[in-house]
Each structure stands twice: as structure tokens, then as C-alpha cells.
């Protein structure tokens, strides 16, 4: 009986770790997606500044 309980407890710990691992993977993906969105926004802002300078140069 103790052997079965220890096996179940090991499986429980493993499942908890796997859930934590999946959550950490999702959090890393979330952080990466946030950074990619920020990167795209910064690219657009740089393009906007460049276009403003070009308009000023033309005028």
C-alpha cells in the first residue's frame, strides 16, 4: 500500500511540475509576444519619425 501511495505521490509531483512547466512556457511566450508587439510599435514609431523628417525635408 505504501508503495502504491509513493508512486501516486511521485506522479502527483511530476504532474504538478509539468503544469508549472507548461505555465512557465506560456508566460515566456506571453513575454515574447509582448516584446514583439513593442518591437513592431517601435519600428512603426521610427518609421513615423523618419516620414516626418522626410516631409520636413521636402517642405
Task: Give the number of DSSP strands.
Answer: 0
SSE arrangement, N to C? H
* Shape designation: rod-shaped
Mean pLDDT over the full residue set: 92
- Estimate percent helicity: over 70%
Q: Distance between the terminal alpha carbons, to the nearest Å?
A: 86 Å
What is the helix tally? 1
- Which structural class fits the helix and strand makeup? mainly alpha
Which range does the strand content fall in? under 5%
Radius of gyration: 25 Å
The biggest beta sheet reads: none
Low-confidence stretches: none
Describe, in plain words, how this protein is organized in 3D:
This protein has 59 residues and is an all-alpha fold. It is 97% helix and 0% strand. It has one helix and no strands. The chain has one helix at 2-58. It starts with a helix and ends with a helix.
Please tag this protein with its features.
single chain, 59 residues, mainly alpha
Could you write a compact summary of the structure shown?
Keywords: Membrane, Transmembrane, Transmembrane helix. The protein contains one helix and no strands.
Amino acid at each position: 500500500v505504501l508503495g502504491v501511495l509513493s508512486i501516486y505521490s511521485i506522479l502527483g509531483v511530476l504532474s504538478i511540475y509539468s503544469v508549472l512547466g507548461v505555465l512557465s512556457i506560456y508566460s515566456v511566450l506571453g513575454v515574447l509576444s509582448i516584446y514583439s508587439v513593442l518591437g513592431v510599435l517601435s519600428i512603426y514609431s521610427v518609421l513615423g519619425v523618419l516620414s516626418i523628417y522626410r516631409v520636413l525635408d521636402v517642405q
